[in-house]
Write a structure and sequence with these properties.
The structure holds 2 protein chains of 2 kinds. By secondary structure, chain A is mainly beta. Chain A has a single domain, classed as Jelly Rolls (Sandwich). In chain A, the strands form 4 sheets. In chain A, strands 2, 7, 9, 10, 11, 12, 15, 19 and 20 form a 9-stranded antiparallel β-sheet that branches. In chain A, a hairpin with a 2-residue loop joins strand 11 and strand 12. By secondary structure, chain B is mostly beta strands. Chain B has one domain: Jelly Rolls, CATH 2.60.120.380. In chain B, 0% of the residues lie in helices and 64% in strands. Chain B contains no helices and 9 strands. In chain B, a hairpin with a 5-residue loop joins strand 5 and strand 6. Chain B is globular. Chain B starts with a strand and ends with a strand. Classes of the chains: A mainly beta, B mainly beta. At the A-B interface, strand 3 and strand 4 of A face strand 1 and strand 3 of B.
Chain lengths: 285, 112
């Protein structure tokens, strides 16, 4: 990015807290609406009951002003509303919010977002271990492969605090509905691998209804289909050994560039993942 | 700028038996709402059974709003309920009688 463009980006009070590549695919401020983020519907054919149970549980994202029973409306970081994806009130329940675009050409891309997560404040406890994980994934396809980079922050597992970022690179088996339609549930709590380095504590605050926002950035190169960067707040991770779920290219998906955020509960209590704003940028002439 | 609108499918093929509710949905930004309810499968006698609209200040303590929908009697039938002035959270709550069952698609249409 040249100095003039960088100065223009940094003069924009809403964009200056990001560090995007020169081309901006989208800059979604959820105080302005849903911006095309929607629910993830699992594949099915003939009967909706044939959908994989992992997908059946998924609920639609919503615009939230982070209202709590004790403190009222908390609001978001850049305005009143954030995008919220909520699990059901059951341990191991998951939820997803997704946005679907395509890429114009294979190039480096960068996803940046301000986020936070909390358990539903339905008990008068710290509840710090009630969120299992939150995460982000790309779903990409070039001429040869479908590639699905997955990253998650494993906050806790069972009664154990973990606080580690992890990736996943092992594909899962497909279930075939017909010659045209298949499904695979790639979000399951298995085959996750720790990123190198120490655990990363994220500010949780002192009760479930106090909320602090965090920054994260994921760099990925659509030419090599490898990570180029990952950071969360002040921690930058070595991504040189981190792989992605890689499958043979599938029909009807060429050029796909999907971005999804997900959450998983660690107790019989809803987990909420909130996004204040998201920038997806790229680098091409 | 055009005003925001959104349709959230708050129950997608869910099977309602006994006590059932939709997941809480945040609605603070919206001024008007319609719940649509479509039956995919119906078993047993659902005559007179209504799903109640509920509101909440915090998303987990609920009160009846006063509106309700009579459950659709046959597969494919659609019923709806218009609501306004509902605050920050909406859901549907229903008690399906013993031996009866309904599979539904519930859609919540919201407009600013």
């Amino acid at each position: 990015m040249d100095a003039l463009q960088q100065a223009i980006f940094r003069a924009d009070s809403e964009l200056s807290r990001f560090d995007p590549l020169p081309r901006v695919f989208f800059f979604d401020r959820f105080n302005r609406g849903y911006n095309g983020w929607t629910t993830l519907v699992g594949n099915y054919e003939d009967d909706i009951d044939r959908m994989h149970p992992g997908y059946q549980q998924l609920t639609p994202p919503m615009l939230s002003n982070l209202t709590h029973w004790d403190g009222g409306s908390h609001g978001a970081m850049g305005g009143t509303y954030a995008l919220k994806t909520a699990t059901r009130a059951k341990a191991e329940a998951q939820s997803v919010a997704i946005k679907r675009i395509t890429f114009q050409r294979a190039c480096p891309i960068k996803l940046e977002f301000y986020f936070t997560f909390k358990p539903e404040a339905s008990s008068l406890k710290l509840s710090k271990l009630d969120v299992r994980s939150i995460g982000v994934l790309f779903d990409l396809q070039d001429d040869a492969h479908r590639v699905m980079p997955h990253l998650r922050y494993l906050n806790a597992h069972g009664g154990r605090s973990v606080q580690r970022w992890q990736y996943k690179d092992k594909p899962v088996d497909f279930k075939r509905f017909s010659d045209e339609t298949v499904t695979h549930y790639h979000l399951a709590d298995q085959d996750w691998i720790d990123l190198p380095g120490e655990a990363q504590e994220l500010c949780y605050n002192e009760i479930p209804t106090k909320v602090n926002w965090h920054y994260a950035a994921v760099g990925f190169d659509l030419r090599s289909m490898r990570y180029t960067h990952f950071q969360c707040n002040d921690r930058v991770y070595d991504m040189s050994d981190a792989g992605s779920l890689t499958l043979d290219a599938m029909p009807n998906l060429r050029g796909m560039l999907n971005v999804a955020f997900f959450a998983e509960a660690n107790a019989d209590k809803r987990t909420f993942l909130y996004l204040d704003s998201v920038v997806l940028s790229g680098e091409w002439d | 700028m055009l005003q925001e609108s959104n349709t959230a499918v708050v129950a997608r093929g869910e099977h309602w038996r006994g006590e059932a509710t939709t997941e809480p949905y945040e609605t603070a930004w919206a001024r008007e709402a319609i719940f649509f309810l479509r039956a995919l499968k119906v078993e047993g006698d659902l005559g007179g059974v209504k799903a109640k609209v509920q509101i909440s200040a915090d998303g987990f303590h609920w009160a009846d709003e006063g509106s309700s929908l009579a459950l659709p009697a046959t597969p494919g039938e659609v019923v709806f309920c218009r609501i306004s002035h509902f605050g920050g959270f909406l859901r549907l709550a229903v008690t399906v009688p013993d031996g009866a069952h309904i599979q539904v698609v519930a859609a919540l249409n919201l407009k600013a």
